[in-house]
UniProtKB/TrEMBL annotation:
PANTHER family documented for this protein: AMINO ACID IMPORT ATP-BINDING PROTEIN, PHOSPHONATES IMPORT ATP-BINDING PROTEIN PHNC
Protein name: Amino acid ABC transporter ATP-binding protein
GO molecular function, one term: ABC-type amino acid transporter activity
Family recorded in the similarity comment: Belongs to the ABC transporter superfamily.
UniProt-listed Pfam families: ABC_tran
Keywords for the protein's UniProt record, in alphabetical order: ATP-binding, Nucleotide-binding, Transport
SMART domains according to UniProt: AAA
Residue ranges of domain ABC transporter in the record: 2-236
InterPro entries cross-referenced by the UniProt entry: AAA+_ATPase, ABC_ATPase_HisP-typ, ABC_transporter-like_ATP-bd, ABC_transporter-like_CS, MetN_ABC_transporter-like, P-loop_NTPase
Source domain of life: Bacteria
Signal sequence segment: none
């Protein structure tokens, strides 16, 4: 579903992504790990063209993301993204945060959008918060709203960029559990995280990035038991 072939990305003179080759297949969960500043967020953001690649080829469902002719809105409709900071509209109730995009971008009717929103709120375990404002929710609950909002667009791919990094430790589990459930249901996902327990349990593949390159791509069993790259070993040893 997602194919990077020799992708390069520069920010001015700074070479942020170097010869990225990566394929993510339907139903796969790929977890991206690596030190801060290694290019993980940039890699993710290229997939829905929040960043443009400098060269190489990047396709999502055979659509060339970098092509000027590509309908970017259509591309983004298929890709849900959840960030570290939940980016909910503070002046809108939970349910209105979720129905906004389906009504505006997909042309879904309001009752239909609300039914869908409640369905996904149920799925993330906070249907009872539908009429609350974001400020009335805990961080973990707000992030679950953000996930429900992404799902309400019925995306084919979900991207997560450190979805639990801004949360108090006691709320990390509830958000990871939601992501785990999606994984088991076959959602195609790319997840950037520092939660190695989650990576080990949920990832089909772990991708290790450092200084803009993918240094290692392995099954979690291989990666955690016996990382091939010295820099991956150092990275893992520092986490504990
Ligand atoms: P990570 O998510 O792994 O921490 P990022 O993809 O956010 O890494 O950033 C990789 C590098 O690119 C960092 O050195 C960062 O400072 C730089 N960078 C990120 N975004 C920009 C930008 N818009 N302009 C210039 N440099 C950037
Ligand atoms: Mg990042």
């Amino acid at each position: 579903m997602i194919h990077f072939r020799g992708v390069e990305k520069h920010f001015g003179s700074f070479h942020v992504l170097k010869n990225i080759n990566l394929a993510v297949h339907q139903g796969e969960v790929v977890v991206v790990v690596g030190p801060s500043g290694s290019g993980k967020s940039t890699l993710l953001r290229c997939i829905n063209r929040l960043e443009t690649i400098t060269s190489g080829e990047l396709t999502v469902n055979d659509i060339r993301v970098g092509d000027k002719k590509t309908d970017i809105n259509k591309l983004r409709r298929d890709i849900g993204m959840v960030f570290q900071h939940f980016n909910l509209y503070p002046h809108k109730r939970v349910i209105d945060n979720i129905t906004l995009a389906p009504i505006k971008a997909l042309g879904v009717t309001k009752p239909e959008a609300e039914r869908t929103a409640l369905f996904y709120l149920e799925k993330v375990g906070i249907r009872d918060k539908a009429h609350a404002y974001p400020s009335q929710l805990s961080g973990g609950q707000q992030q679950r709203v953000a996930i429900a909002r992404g799902l309400a667009m019925k995306p084919k791919i979900m991207l997560f960029d450190e979805p639990t990094s801004a949360l108090d430790p006691e709320m990390v589990g509830e958000v990871l559990d939601v992501i785990k459930t999606l994984a088991h249901e076959g959602m195609t996902m790319v997840v950037v995280t520092h939660e190695m327990g989650f990576a080990r349990e949920v990832a089909d593949r772990v991708v290790f990035m450092d200084q803009g390159s993918i240094l290692e791509e392995a099954s979690p069993a291989e990666f955690f038991a016996n990382p091939r790259e010295e820099r991956a070993r150092v990275f893992l040893s520092r986490l504990i």
